[in-house]
Amino acid sequence: MTDEAPFLVVGLGNPGREYAGNRHNVGFMVAELLASRVGGKFGRHKRAVAEVAEGRLGFGGPKLILVKPLTFMNLSGAPVVALSQFFKVPVENVIAVHDELDVPYGQVRVKRGGGEGGHNGLRSMSKSLGSKEYARVRFGIGRPPGRQDPADYVLSDFAGAERKELDFLVDRAADVVEAVVLEGVEWAQNKYHGS
């Protein structure tokens, strides 16, 4: 980790009120909670099609640049690259927060690098950054029931039973992001993968 460089935390989602409660937008939900924790307010950035909030983790702690790309999911990479260059963030300090079909609902997983698992937001980020070596905080949404198309599933809102736990899980995902920033990916895996 680079001591002085800030961390770019990218909440992946789609802009617009009609998508706000979608499973695919859980990255935005986590970014918004983190902004409230660090006292940051989202506003449009002049260099990228994105909303950005800034703050520090703890007193004098690492600087967080929280990002909600305002492009659609499959074009997320362009604003991420623009902001990583503007704020001079190395790729190892980039953290994507996203929904994950391959992780059961209620679980949050962390990894660095690897494939995109068909996630268009990650695919766009990897292509634009020219690297897959950024960290990912993977918010489990599970597989769609029956024969539902995964594309329709991710663009649907959380079910009633899921919504009962959603605030708690978004809170936990924000804790995981903070752990990755403060202690690193392996430490976060050891702490959170058992729960």
UniProtKB/TrEMBL annotation:
The active site is at residue 24. TRNA binds at residues 19, 72, 74, 120. This is Peptidyl-tRNA hydrolase. It holds the Pfam family Pept_tRNA_hydro. The record marks 99 as: Stabilizes the basic form of H active site to accept a proton. The lineage of its organism: Bacteria, Bacillati, Actinomycetota, Actinomycetes, Micromonosporales. Hydrolyzes ribosome-free peptidyl-tRNAs (with 1 or more amino acids incorporated), which drop off the ribosome during protein synthesis, or as a result of ribosome stalling. Catalyzes the release of premature peptidyl moieties from peptidyl-tRNA molecules trapped in stalled 50S ribosomal subunits, and thus maintains levels of free tRNAs and 50S ribosomes. GO terms for molecular function: peptidyl-tRNA hydrolase activity; tRNA binding. Monomer. It comes from the Bacteria. It comes from Actinoplanes friuliensis DSM 7358. Keywords: Cytoplasm, Hydrolase, RNA-binding, tRNA-binding. NCBIfam families: pth.
